[in-house]
Structures are given as C-alpha cells and as structure tokens.
Amino acid sequence: MEMKASDKTKRKMSNLYDYLKKKFVADQLRKMLRWRRESLSTQRYLDKQRLFRHSA
Predict the structure, then answer these.
(1) Tens digit of each residue's pLDDT (9 = 90 or more) over 7-24
(2) Which InterPro entries does the record match to this protein (predicted)?
(3) What whole-number distance in Å separates Cα of residue 46 and Cα of residue 43?
(4) 3-class secondary structure per residue, 7-31
(5) How far, in Å, are 1, 14, 16, 35, 51 from residue 9 at the CA level?
C-alpha cells in the first residue's frame, strides 16, 4: 500500500505534537512540584520565626 507524502507528513507532525505535548506537561508538573517543595520549606521557616518572636 502506497502512502501519500502528505499523509506521512501529517502522521509525523502528529507524533511530534504528541511528544512535545507530553514533554511540556511533564516539565510543568516537575516545576510545580519543585515550587511546592520550596514554598513548604519557606513556610516552615516563617512559622518557626513567628513562634520564636512570640515566645521572646
């Protein structure tokens, strides 16, 4: 079965789009998790400072 060049191109572009979409979503998830982890440690630090100031 012979495939048209335009069909091959469409399929390749579709595969590329799917790959880039998955990569983008994975990168965004990784960023969100990192920001969450950093904000939690910052929040813990601020809570400790608040407790220290109130007890002093």
Answers:
(1) 999 999 999 999 999 999
(2) C5orf52
(3) 5
(4) HHHHHHHHHHHHHHHHHHHHHHHHH
(5) 16, 8, 10, 38, 63
- What 8-state DSSP symbol labels residue 44? H
pTM: 0.63
For the chain, how many residues are written?
Answer: 56
**Structure tokens belonging to residue 7:** 């069909």
Query: What does the block give as tokens for 22?
Result: 């998955």
Give residue for tokens 């969100």. 32
